[in-house]
Write a structure and sequence with these properties.
Helices cover 34% and strands 17% of the residues. With 854 residues, it is α+β, with helices and mostly antiparallel strands. Among the domains are: 228 residues, Rossmann fold, CATH 3.40.50.10880; 126 residues, Nucleotidyltransferase, domain 5 (2-Layer Sandwich), CATH 3.30.420.510; 150 residues, Nucleotidyltransferase, domain 5 (2-Layer Sandwich), CATH 3.30.420.40. The strands form seven sheets. A seven-stranded mixed β-sheet has the order 24-29-28-1-25-26-27. Bound molecules: adenosine-5'-triphosphate, pantothenoic acid and manganese (II) ion. GO terms for molecular function: ATP binding; hydrolase activity; metal ion binding; pantothenate kinase activity.
């Protein structure tokens, strides 16, 4: 039988089984599947399309008019009442920083030709004028500016035309000048700078209450963003699982320039119960005066090398080196911040700026923690969420606040932090646009695809210029907390303070993917975890090395796929820098972006490529492999047809697994083939599967000689087949756009495929004029193609556009479904084979999991 000779070009360790065995030395690593494919079959047909939310922006065609020359072939159509492209920007203008949240819709890729578009139309991917191509939904970006540099912010808005809905918006393209653009804004600056915005950008700021916005933003984040909240104690970050039904009440402490303390009882139900004027502005203000630091980050960084005992009066200083244990104070506890400076006969310049900064930071953080606790106590609250940019993701700040809360509450109350810490108000203002209908977003509608950080994406041009300056953050010491209310002096190991540029990597660009939903056939969506193995630090190191080793090869391919132009080279460089920065960031702190599995890591790379406008790095490689495989398909089909049914089924499964390399000593580490065969042969006796979902993986032999023949067998048995493929290119994975063309080619050699593809609307009269004998092929069940909503080598079933089973090794090996499931994969990674099965590279998995009817 035919060899399944292709492999994932980067991920598979062996560089491919069978014919194209490029020696195990090729460093790629496996996303797992040789066939890498899996099929799920349901005796009940699942719902074809998930319902869309009713409150999404609708296309408002009223008053539509042609704008420009009527003789043009494609004149711009002006939709004066189409508002959802406008409500794209919201601001929070605080005393120290301006925060922007803006939404960018993805335009159809200009490289997308008409043929592809018409394929999509046929596949129902264009939905009543609204794009449903998932990654085209849009993104939420987060950017901040110093309030003192307001004009930079205005330039940014203006250069991106954010106030007019972005450069892709109809109003921008048509050159229309809506005379009354209104932008939601909160924070004091919404009042203070309203005139300036009108003057410079011609926009009116619609003021939203600051506290309303803080609460709306916090509630939204806690409800919709996975791994948003975390605790930080003794240098350890831990994500908190938020129970949606048990979120309220909580205390929200926003540490901006000043501090607001709010008791939150529900959506829109809250009370500002306290505040303190000793906040972020105090630390930065006093710090600037006393240290001559030029930036907040510089001040924070200084603190990391500080020793506050030269400045603070400690309990031990007062008690002659002793603890005051009777009231629970250790000798190292600060008795009086800055107290030591009263007795020394010293000038400011005699103190180290490092020590000053640390004393200040401890004083203010501790104080905020303590006041927060007291307010929690007032209302009997156990959970305190801290936001605001004073936190700055800084380990020592968070540890100090947590320490104070923990110490004074005797462990009763918990301090938690938010990844989007400083953007609560801006997000709340953004949410207040009623018309955009984001209010009912559920957790899987907003996918933090990967956190490039706004500066990287939004100003790619800038990034490209500055790319080489972005260096991996340098670890520096951070103080470790000890018991009894005190902190020891900083030790050499520990956390880091990142430059502002790389700190932006902390916050992800949120992709709004309105059509995504949880796969309805998952047995238990709550318990579902796509990643088969946890990435501990060792695993991380291993994968980072693999990905780093492949980077230059990938860049070469990506640049070549864009014609090798200077522009492509520039983007290739920028991609390499950005991706390396992410890897470096994750190496230091694997949890920096929330819990991060292998699937996320691989997706990050794909997303990163797309950010730098590499649409499909493997396009020509995929084409070549498809053509080569299609050329041998007729022979394979003939060979298969000459076999008896049992032998054919085995050959088909082996075909998916590239089983010819069994000869080289590989074995099946999971082998449920006999069970599967039994079920399949029972098909014949009148209970064929109604529908099977085949999750296809690689282009070339994998899909053409593996999955398509398997699909054909199912069709022959009367089972409808849905080929589920990636929505966007990822490595050499076949995409939903490419599949119809491949199926049409394959159908030239096979009546079963042809009739089924016609029944499924995949091909129309493709064979008109071609005569062959279809008498033996009474198939009328359809063969269909759907996209899965993914653009990654792995699949997360919480984020799927349609039903299906998943790639079956790195992700989903352990996932359980409500339908019979067959997971087929070849383990093309020695490490994984050993870890999971005590097996070897090229071992195969044929895992059949029937649903046991009870
Ligand atoms: N790059 C930065 N520049 C200035 N301050 C920063 C920076 N990064 C973090 N900070 C800290 O964050 C604080 C501002 O936080 P935030 O943006 O949440 O408040 P704000 O909205 O400006 O203030 P307020 O809400 O009181 O009006 C600063 O006072 C400072 O302590
Ligand atoms: C005045 C605001 C609300 C402006 O954001 C903030 O800076 C703050 O809460 N300051 C503390 C004021 C107080 O309650 O003492
Ligand atoms: Mn603020």
């Amino acid at each position: 039988m035919a060899a399944n000779n292709n492999s994932d070009p980067i991920l598979d360790e062996g560089g491919g089984g069978g014919v194209k065995h490029e020696a195990a030395g090729e460093a790629g690593e496996g996303k797992g599947g040789g066939g890498g494919a899996a099929a799920a079959a349901a005796t009940q047909a699942p719902a074809a399309m998930l319902p869309r939310s009713g409150s999404r922006p609708q296309l408002d065609l009223s008053g539509a008019a042609i704008h420009g020359n009527l003789e043009d072939r494609n004149p711009t159509i002006l939709l004066p009442n189409q508002s959802d492209d406008i409500s794209h920007l919201a601001l929070d203008i605080g005393g120290s920083l301006i925060k922007l949240v803006y939404f960018s819709r993805h335009a159809e890729h200009s490289s997308e030709d008409k043929r592809k578009l018409s394929t999509k139309r046929r596949l129902g991917m264009l939905n009543g004028g609204r794009r449903s191509y998932p990654v085209l939904g849009g993104r939420l970006h987060f950017v901040k500016f110093e309030t003192g540099k307001l004009s930079e912010c205005l330039d940014f808005i203006s250069s991106k035309q954010l106030h007019r809905g972005g450069v892709d918006s109809p109003s921008w393209r048509s050159g229309a000048q809506p005379d009354n653009i209104v932008i939601k804004a909160t924070g004091g600056g919404a009042f203070k700078y309203a005139d300036l915005f009108k003057e410079r950008l011609g926009v009116s700021l619609e003021k939203e209450d600051e506290m309303d916005c803080l609460v709306a933003g916090a509630n939204f984040l806690l409800k919709s963003i996975r791994h948003e909240a975390f605790t930080h104690m003794d240098g350890q970050k831990e994500y908190v699982q938020i129970d949606q039904n048990d979120l309220f009440p909580f205390l929200l402490v926003n540490v901006g320039s000043g501090v607001s303390i709010i008791k939150v009882d529900g959506h829109g139900k809250f009370q500002r119960v306290s505040g303190t004027n000793v906040g972020g502005g105090t630390y930065w203000g006093l710090g600037r005066l006393m240290t001559k630091c030029k930036s907040f980050d510089e001040l924070l960084e200084l603190s990391q090398r500080g020793d506050n005992s030269t400045i603070d009066m400690l309990v031990g200083d007062i008690y002659g080196g002793l603890d005051y244990s009777k009231i629970g104070l250790s000798a190292s506890t600060i008795a009086s911040s800055f107290g030591k400076t009263i007795s020394d006969d010293k000038e400011l310049s005699d103190y180290r700026p490092e020590d000053i900064s640390l004393s200040l930071l401890r004083m203010i953080s501790y104080n905020i923690g303590q006041i927060s606790y007291l307010n929690a106590l007032r209302y009997g609250l156990k959970r305190i969420f801290f936001g605001g940019f004073f936190i700055r993701g800084h380990a020592y700040t968070m540890d100090t606040i947590s320490f104070a809360v923990n110490f004074w509450s005797k462990g009763e109350a918990k301090a938690m932090f938010l990844r989007h810490e400083g953007f609560l108000g801006a997000l709340g203002a953004f949410m207040s646009y009623e018309k955009h209908g984001l209010d009912d977003l559920r957790i899987h509608h907003l996918v933090e695809r990967f956190p490039m950080g706004a500066p990287y994406i939004s100003w790619m041009e800038k990034f490209v210029q500055k790319g080489t300056q972005i260096t991996a953050p340098v670890p520096v010491g951070f103080p470790v907390t000890t018991g009894m209310g005190g902190f020891e002096r900083p030790t050499a190991k520990g956390d880091i303070l990142r430059s502002d540029a790389s700190a932006a990597l902390n916050v992800g660009v949120l992709h709004l993917v309105p059509t995504l939903d949880v796969f309805p056939l998952l047995e238990d969506p709550k318990m579902y975890e796509p990643n088969t193995i946890d990435l501990d630090l060792n695993e991380y190191k291993y994968w980072f090395k693999v990905l780093s080793d492949h980077l230059s090869d990938l860049v070469d391919k990506a640049v070549a796929s864009e014609g090798g132009t200077d522009d492509a080279k520039r983007r290739g460089d920028a991609f390499a820098h950005a991706f390396s920065a992410h890897l470096a960031r994750l190496m230091e702190e694997p949890a920096a972006y929330g819990k991060f599995g292998l699937a996320n890591l691989l997706e990050l790379r794909e997303e990163c490529l797309r950010e730098f406008q590499f649409v499909d790095a493997y396009v020509s490689i995929k084409q070549r492999e498809n053509e080569a495989s299609l050329a041998v398909l007729p022979d394979l089909l003939m060979e298969l047809d000459s076999m008896n049914e049992e032998a054919r089924l085995l050959a088909l499964i082996e075909g998916v697994l590239a089983a010819n390399i069994f000869d080289w000593g590989s074995r099946a580490c999971i082998d449920d083939f006999d069970m599967f065969k039994k079920r399949m042969l029972a098909d014949k006796k009148g209970q064929p599967y109604k529908r099977a979902l085949l999750f296809v993986d690689n282009s070339g032999a994998d899909v053409v000689l593996g999955m398509i023949p398997l699909a054909r067998e199912l069709l022959r048995n009367g089972t409808e087949v849905v080929l589920v493929a990636n929505s966007l290119p990822a490595l050499n994975d076949v995409t939903a756009n490419e599949l119809p063309g491949i199926v049409a080619e394959a159908a030239k050699h096979c009546g079963i495929l042809r009739k089924a593809a016609e029944a499924g609307g995949l091909i129309f009269d493709a064979m008109a004029g071609i005569q062959d004998d279809l008498k033996d092929e009474p198939v009328s069940v359809p063969l269909m193609v759907v996209e899965n909503g993914c653009g990654s080598p792995c699949i997360d079933f919480r984020q799927l556009i349609l039903e299906g089973m998943g790639r079956s090794l790195h992700t989903n090996l352990n996932a359980r479904f409500k339908c019979d499931t067959l997971k087929l994969a070849m383990v093309k990674n020695q490490r994984l084979a050993e870890k999971l099965f005590n097996g070897n590279i090229y071992d195969c998995i044929c895992k059949f999991e029937p649903v046991h009817l009870t």
